[in-house]
Task: structure prediction
Amino acid sequence: MRRTAWLLLFVLLLTLVFASTVLPQRLDVSVGEPAPENIKAPTEFVDRPTTERRREEAMAEVSEVYEQDPEVSREALAEMESLFATIRAARQMIDEEEVEADAISPESRRLLARRLRNVIDFELQEDQVDTLILGPEEVIDDAEDLTDNLLSFIFAQGVKPDNVDNFREQFRENLGRSELPQPLIDLLKDTGAPLIEPNMFLDEAETEARREEAAEAVDPEIILPGQVIVPDGQIITPDDMIRLRDAGVLAENGVWRIYLGAFFFSLILLAILAAYTYRLHPDVFASESQLVLLGMLVLGTLFISRLALIVSPYLAPVGVGALLIAVLLNGNLAVLAGLLLALSMAVIMGGDLPPFLVAFASTTVAAIAATRIKDRNDFMRAGFMVSLVNVAILFAYHEYVGGASFMDPTLWRDVMWSAGNGLLTAVLAIGSLPFLEGLFGMMTPIKLVELASPTQPLLRRLLEEAPGTYHHSILVANMVEPAVEAIGGDSLLARVGAYYHDVGKIRRPYLFIENQFGGENPHDKLSPNLSALIIISHVRDGVELAREEDLPEAIIDFIATHHGNMLCSYFYSRSREQNESEDVDPSTFRYPGPRPRTKEGAVLMLADAAEASARALSRPSPDRLRALVRSIIHERLEDGQLDKCDLTFSDLDRIADVFSQVLGGAFHRRLEYPEIIQGLKEDQGVVNRDSDQR
Result:
């Protein structure tokens, strides 16, 4: 339930981040009002009014497409040909006497009128009849040629329905300027002009297709983010309202849909991340603090990247999230988280491909580079790698799509921001890592290296106030590190834990045998109960000192568990010897625990006891050291001290081999204590005594 609550909280916060990219400050304005401020575009969108106006202008420039019908001109010319053929036939019907007399009898006139009426639908005047019948043949031929030429010329130009009258008037004017007899001109005007009909007809389909093609050729007018849509004080027009609505800055219905979409996208993104963590990284999912850290890194990265978009989409440092997740949690988890972060940035940036490619490259390279980070300088190297890959990706995409020239300042501006992306990623990671380490108690290799420095306050005090304990801790660390590495544990963490495991002895260093340097042992004058209490208290004192110095819990755990709940056998035996008549409660001689819960803690317990015992061992030959180490391991195993840590018998064998090798190189034959006799069994008494006081 707590994890579900955290998930919902991060979903809601992430919803606000996504919604903020498409939900700027809403405006309540209308047509005819002055703009309350410079209204700027929050995102890129198409200026529909301007684009549509330009497309309409382009369509208007396209001329109408007409298709010519040759049958119209052929019919008109055929009509005129029939007219002149009838005229010639009529001329042949007249007697030669009448022609010679240049006078037509009424009877002939009636005959001619009936004949010509078949092709002329109006009554001819007498002068027209006389001209047609009595005029020279050359005049009739000239009239026919002129009429054919005029009609052919007019139809060749294309007669459209809207200019028929113009062409008919042109026909009459041309006839009027001819040298033909006026009666013949009047006759041809009345008969030829009506024959001029439209021979050009509009092809609506082709015209519309060409206009649509012209409109599609007009590029849309784009309004870029930050561009002023309506200046402050300018009266808002209907076109402005369309632009503001498309920009999404109006306080209209539908805002809830933006939130709903952002909510579901956030839910899907975090659900995928949670499911992946649950299935493949259960250790992270089991830790509430680590889950919260994961959510904070995703949310914080997107928030910072969202702010960086104000400068450039290529500057968004999405790689910092993947880098910190890899360092603080898990490298494989960082790769998936990085992919989801890149997809989220693609949504925030409106699906623009080049920034998405740069974001994806940043997260992937950062997650890979994090596996080699051991100190803070490595962050800068990782940032350099991110910058290098970002620039390479940008150039590769530029060449692939055949972008602008290399001299284009826009390209080099994007390259500059892409390179700065890596630097910003490194700086943010370095700056935020100490805060995250302290807030969540996370142990990173960088933190461990810092804690291992001899300049750390507790280690400096240990060296100055309890030098014997300090050198004992160094040797224990030399034993622990290779042993933990041999069984697949965190060797650096184990070494640092070994450095600090005995810091509690700073409170009373002289009461521990390694700091007495051959002097009088105060425990010889103390009761066994008091001695045991003093020895046991160094665990509690160490935990207190560690908390005062704000050491991580993982290091404090080494201090608290390095003796488990073992029995101080030497002082317990002394107490029993001094109180033969009384039962001695062994619980008062036991360490408070808890027992080790990790491989590293268990190895430290074994190394601490083995090193202390080896110092008191007479004739420390390799065989005797090996036997001593195995006896200590067996003793802790039998006492249940190793029950809570995940160690196998094979692991214990490897630990014993490493301990024997390290101790064999550290110790040589020593003078025997007077009370020690030959044999490992006889050595064990002093071993226990010395071990208890360590």
